[in-house]
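Q: What does the assembly look like in three dimensions?
Context provided by user:
Components: two
Sequences:
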Amino acid sequence: MTREDFIMIVEREQESLRSFLLALCCGNKSDADDLAQDALVKAFLSSADYQDRGRFRSWLFKIAHNTFLNHKASQRTTESIDEARALVSSTAADAPFEHQNLYLALRTLPPKERSAITLFYLNEYSIKEIATITETSEDAVKKQLSRGRDKLKERLQL
Amino acid sequence: MKKDKALEELFLSQSPHFDDCADFMAKLNKRLDAVEHTKQRQTPTSRRYKMAIVWYAAAAAVVGLLVVTATMFVGNGDAGQHTAITVPASKGKHLAEKKAAVPHMENTDSDLHRLTARIESAQKKQVPSPTPQKSIYTAMLPEVDFCPGDNKEVRLPQVSKERSFNLVCKVVLPEIIACADSTIYQSTTEMMVACDEIEYNDNPFKNVSL
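A: Here is the predicted structure of the complete assembly.
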């Protein structure tokens, strides 16, 4: 895959990739864009080995998901919703996003549940595709979705 | 698994829209330029590094080969010296046992065979004791090694004249001869001649067996 081909595909997919990472970063746009850039550079460097052209989007999401998990592992996790609220309100980049309640609720989920919920509801992936992207079994994805859904509904009072 | 309607609607309604796509792509292009530049600089360096590793490996192999060859050459040179050393049979056995116990001694195979052959031939050449084992004279003799170097005075038992002859000529003398030492060769030869003369001329008991 040449650089031109890569750029062409990325232009088409970048918006969904960025929204996925924005949800994973709970509305922190600068973090989400940094992670998106990192993921795209990684994808470009390994694009020579990429074979299955039909699933480029899933492959890109897989790299983005792993990049997010690595980033998350290197950061201090914020467990309580009050801490999350304080962090989000202090971030200027979150101001343009109206839907902070959803991001705040997402922040309380563990990273894997957050990924599964975001891929399922925001990016509209099937359970099988989510299992491929997150490198887990379909049963594990189902459990993550079930737990995540219950927690989100409780937090958002739906 | 069915989607939760409320959650689905919430996510779809809150899907973000990005108006900075051009900036994002410009940033990405800059980063890709930097990555390609680094990659181009790294490629010849890594190639040189790989070549250096290959050369070092080849040089190490050649040096190793030379060392092994030299060691083998020196080992063969030493083999001649080893064969010149006379090792007693018991030590030969120990060497064989050690060889069996230590697997890395394969190189000493030829040496060991030569050594074993020498020991066997030496054992064959060894003069068997002419004295019968259950002889009364053997029983009378003190347990003394007659070979030179002991510097011990051997007192023979007091016996009759004919027994004294048999004791000296047929027991003591063969023991001394068995030492096969050149320093006592002359005296033993004289003793043998004397004994033969006595036996064949004057000994009245020459038919008495020991």
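Follow-up: The helical segments of chain B are 5-13, 21-84, 89-101, 109-125, 136-140, 161-179, 185-202.
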